Amino acid sequence: MLFGKGGVVALGKFDALHIGHRELAIQASKAGHPFLLSFVGMDKVLGWEPRAPIVAKCDRKRVLSSWVPYCCNTVPEEFQVEFSSVRHLSPRQFVEKLSQELRVRGVVAGENYRFGYKAAGDALELVKLCEEYGMEAYIIKSVMDKNRCSADMNFVSNSKEKGQVSSTRVREAFAVGDMSYVSELLGRPHRLILMATDQERFSSEQHKISAPRSCTLNLAPKEGLYEKCSLLLDQENVVQCRVVIDSKFVHIETDHGGLSDIFGSQNLQFLHIEFGDSCT
């Protein structure tokens, strides 16, 4: 793929699509057509343990579309590069690839962005190299978490944490079941998506639907009870509910009844749950 004259890429991991990532997309949209450029296959190459994504792959387009009002009425597009193809590139070789192979017009990165083999390059070097290759470079300040500090959380934060919004911070909030905080960091309620398969099916009662945890397509919060949630069956059919997560199942409960009727009539393969409150 060639980005062409108008292509401006934001650089990052973009696994959470949190408000810091959104800020990168906003700056890219001011300079041209915005793309999010990230790397895939890092876990396999680096031997990391696989983990559930924060945003389900099938839900990323919806999230990016919700950024349209912030991004000059444009939906940011995603472009992924195999990590194995860039892992050993020096900072100069990486920028050269952006310029000559992908024909990028400009790049956007956070002030703490590192790139190149063994993260040898920093934001200042990115600006310098982009200038050499005739590209614009925009470095933005980290989006800080102004409402809380890591000391407020019931976890030991990463030693590199400086109070900025990060995917690590989001995952740590998930780990303690603080979904209100997750919503602040994401800039939206978290949406958990479950998919039934031939092997794993949903079961329903009048006031309850249960799904095996193996059906989850993205990260679920810790075990517990979550009030003020929403079950989205389609754009017009939203059911207020509470969610109970245990070691094996995700249970969706409502006081309104009729879930088994809805479930039976629609033969649901997907369940979309939005979390509105923290674990109790």
Task: Give a verbal description of the structure.
This protein is α/β, with parallel strands linked by helices and 280 residues long. The chain is 25% helix and 25% strand. It contains 8 helices and 12 strands. Helix 4 crosses helix 5 and helix 6 (167-175) packs antiparallel against helix 7. The longest helix is centred in the first third of the chain and has 13 residues, at 19-31. The chain is elongated.
What is the topology?
Elements: E1 7-11, H1 19-31, E2 33-40, H2 42-46, H3 60-65, E3 77-82, H4 91-101, E4 106-110, H5 123-132, E5 136-140, H6 167-175, H7 179-186, E6 191-195, E7 203-205, E8 208-212, E9 224-232, E10 238-245, E11 249-253, H8 259-266, E12 270-274
Parallel strand pairs: 1-2, 1-4, 2-3, 4-5
Antiparallel strand pairs: 6-12, 7-8, 8-11, 9-10, 9-12, 10-11
Concise structural overview:
The protein is α/β, with parallel strands linked by helices. The protein has helices spanning 19-31, 42-46, 60-65, 91-101, 123-132, 167-175, 179-186, 259-266; strands at 7-11, 33-40, 77-82, 106-110, 136-140, 191-195, 203-205, 208-212, 224-232, 238-245, 249-253, 270-274. Keywords: ATP-binding, FAD, Flavoprotein, FMN, Nucleotide-binding, Nucleotidyltransferase, Transferase.
